Recover the amino acids of this structure.
């Protein structure tokens, strides 16, 4: 399930001047939104695995791109999630 306030937060970072302000003081910008403490912690720790199921994939990639994470590192984190996921049994019939 997506998190409305997390999505709104990332969407709002597209406004002019928002990214430099966020890079200067992440905690100050995050504090403007009613985000759960675990979401705040994930943002501050660049936790792709925690945030991925909570936000639209396009917003997620946008966020990590401007937050300074390379595409290689971002994609590696996504692939690591796939490796950790439980394997589904094949259905027959």
């Amino acid at each position: 399930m997506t998190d409305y306030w997390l999505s709104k937060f990332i969407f709002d970072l597209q406004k002019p001047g928002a990214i430099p302000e966020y890079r200067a003081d992440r905690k100050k910008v995050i504090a403007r939104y009613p985000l759960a403490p675990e979401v705040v912690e994930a943002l501050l720790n660049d936790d792709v695995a925690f945030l991925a199921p909570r936000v639209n994939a396009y917003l997620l990639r946008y966020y990590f791109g401007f937050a300074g994470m390379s595409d290689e590192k971002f994609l590696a984190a996504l692939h690591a999630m796939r490796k950790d996921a439980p394997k589904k049994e094949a259905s027959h019939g």
Q: What stands out?
A: The radius of gyration is 15 Å. Residues 12 and 47 are 20 Å apart (CA to CA). The helical segments are 4-12, 18-24, 26-30, 37-44, 48-51, 57-66, 71-84. The chain has a mean pLDDT of 89.
